[in-house]
Amino acid sequence: MAELSYPLGEHHRSEVRAQTGRAADELTVEAVRAGRVGAQDAAIDPETLLRQADFAERGGNPQLADNLRRGAELATFPDDDVLRFYDALRPGRSSAAELEEIAVTLEAGGAARCAALVREARAHYLRRGLIS
Amino acid sequence: MEGAPGRSLRSAFLEDGAISRDVVVPEYPELGLIAFASPHDPEPSIRVEDGRIVEIDGTPEAEFDLIDAFLAAHGIDPAVADEAMAIDDLSWARMIVSTDVPRADVLRLVEGATPGKLARVLSLLSPLELMQAMAKMRARRTPSIQGHVTNRIDHPLLIAADAASAVALGFRELETTVPVLRDAPLVALALLIGSQVPAPGALTQCAIEERLELELGMRGLTTYAETVSVYGTERVFLDGDDTPWSKAFLAASYASRGLKMRFTSGSGAEVLMGAAEGKSMLYLEARCLAVTRAAGSQGTQNGGIDGINVTGSVPNGMREILAENVLAALYGLETCTGNDTQMSASDIRRTAHTLPLLLAGSDFLFSGFGSIPTYDNAFGPSNFNAEDIDDYMMIQRDWGFEGALRSKDDATLLPLRRRAAEACRAVLEELELLTFDDAEVERVVHAHGSLDVAQEQTDDTATAGDAVIERGITALDVVRALAARGFDVEAERVLEMTRQRLFGDHLQTSAIFDEDMRVLSALTDPNDYTGPGTGYRVSAERQTEIARVRQERTHAELLAEQAPHAGCVTLAEAGPAAAKVRPDEVVIGVSPAFAKEVWLTLSGVTVGEALRQMLAGIEEEGVHARVVRVTHSLDLGMVGWTAATLSGSGVALGIQGKGTSLIHRADLPVLANLELLSVAPLIGPEHFRALGRNAARHAKGGKPAPVILPESSAAMGPRYHAKVVALITRESACLEPGPARAVEVSWPS
What we know:
The complex is a heterodimer.
Chain A: H1 8-11, H2 29-33, H3 46-58, H4 62-74, H5 79-89, H6 96-108, H7 112-127
Helix pairs in contact in A: 3-4, 6-7
Chain B: H1 9-15, E1 46-49, E2 52-56, E3 59-60, H2 66-75, H3 78-86, H4 89-97, H5 103-110, H6 115-122, H7 127-137, E4 144-148, H8 156-169, E5 173-176, H9 184-195, E6 203-206, H10 210-218, E7 224-229, H11 234-239, H12 244-256, E8 260-264, H13 269-272, H14 281-294, E9 299-301, H15 308-311, H16 317-330, E10 334-336, H17 347-360, E11 364-370, H18 389-399, H19 410-430, H20 438-446, H21 460-470, H22 475-484, H23 488-503, E12 512-513, E13 519-520, H24 540-547, H25 555-559, E14 570-576, E15 585-590, H26 607-620, E16 624-629, H27 636-646, E17 651-655, E18 661-665, E19 675-677, H28 685-699, H29 716-733, E20 741-746
Parallel strand pairs in B: 4-5, 4-11, 5-6, 7-8, 8-9, 9-10, 15-16, 15-17
Antiparallel strand pairs in B: 1-2, 2-3, 12-13, 14-20, 16-20, 17-18, 18-19
């Protein structure tokens, strides 16, 4: 998806695809009624999030861009995993070792930026005595 | 009534007023009860070594708390830091306000500034300068508004109907929450359905515990999230059960599901949680906002929020609130600017809190205008609620600002409410969650609030909510159910909200969908305000819409009450009026349109009755009376004085069609008088009679006690002046030059 312009829903309606590869405009009421659409057909594609990250970067917000890139990494993880990782990062939920495990899991799933975020959290939690 | 020693009746009166129910305190800096510039606020500083931030606001790297550390890693741009921090505070303040410094230049410098620096700079701005800064710095050009849609019994059909009403009025984000957490899935589902009935594209959220909130979003039952709270001190952040990193991860989680999300913060929270560390409210809020930006949230809800009453209790509290909103804009964040908590028992004070922000504009003027009655607001009363909707419309009309709402009458609203309630009922039935009978739909359609619908308390909603979670029901199931029951338009709109998650356009800063599903965001609709004639301007079309309020009356409507009283008295004109017919007479001068075009006075007394009473009062005193019509002027002084010059006693009464009356004497200046009853709405038959009596006594050389109208503090002007102007146009139309005319009075038999 090179040289796309924002908003995608306006300019590239037929090109944007869900994670399953199904095009956004195939997501019709008829298809839903016929049971031909699954939850994953409504899941945003990591590529799309990366394009949105580029738009954010160009719009002057590198932090929003970073967030969207982390989102792109998490997009392919199951809901339960994402919820579990979030919970693990909350105060008093995990040991340093458990956070490292999560970082490894993330990395293995191609989520290098998220893994780095978890490792950074781990280091500061340790330094501030939140975890051991 | 007498005052107690040392205590005046005025004090006693004031102490009983609504404002006296508000309790405020002196500044206690050590508790964080200080709006700006606590003595414990740090001296702003930054130190960069090898491209790394090693000191923020006096704290060296080794002592960084979680917030400092997060800002050093993700927030402050080392490449801009030295430049931004070297600019003196006053120059900074001027750049923020000046229309000659582009918004983008200010945003670039903010990336290198510390929270301490920005808090100090903003403390230099006056209220007016803060408004100017808000107008210039907010992200989206077009202001929008968010509404609360909740009720105290989590009634799903009422949620759906109220969501439809809210969207019809113009709300583009709807926020709900629940008194009973297990009700949340059903309430979120109802909100989603109702929100798409009048028009496509309104975003919906359900503010609950963060994990369940995310789960509802993942299922597409909500389309954005807002209650992602951050705090300005480490201890409160941890007490809030999060860290900057967990919040950043949460932000990425929302993005990963194509869900819009904003953080929330606001002064007073740290004070309430007992760990403000002696810092000023604005400084702590600056830290919250710095974290918000650093974590990659596109926006924030701030400006007091739950802590508004803490901020409101200290001097300069409301200036601090506005400064917080400006600060959010400086960080390039979508500004969803509070006004969502009742900040005073006084209507004047709570309005004064909100008005400056309304006039300046923000991305969302309210982060929850209570679109439902105060008693139904599960967040607690908002600063403006359903009871205030018409007040809001009128203020919007007065100032011609973009308040993002529009008046809708029942002819528009009732069918939408019915459609929403029926669509919601159909889905709940189709998914075998809950059933409602026709009578309940009917009650919901017409309800003002939950007190008007079935009150039976059951566990049904919660049980159905559990089922939504257990059965894995998603927005696609809602689409299927809507389509199966013939709600094709709504099915398509709900599906479109799901489809939009594939595009992710609404993840950009300040993104909303307009009613044509166009994305308005910082990228497509950037704020381009650079002074007069630039930025968002209310279009002529929109101005017309804003002007149309429930209380608007045309002159034809205002004058409609006149016609039924036509002929209540007949004044037959009989040539020029004679002068000084007898010394013991009082002449009554009537205005040009009196009993000709104007038949009913403002108090509801007919002109015939008013005249009859005046004549009777004069007769009681054994004085003769004559009626003349003055046509060359509608001014009451001139009408009365002209009559007085014709009066043998020199004394005359003057009366206008609207009922305003006086006693005049020929030797007085035209604009003087002996007695004047100027408040026409209060002049009853007995007052007209008493005035006639007094005129007669004056004619006899007496000194009667003046007629006193009943005391009233009612706002007469706004109630009657539109009608006064309409009546004056009638008087004006009857103006003719020439001398006063004799009239013969007769009454219908």
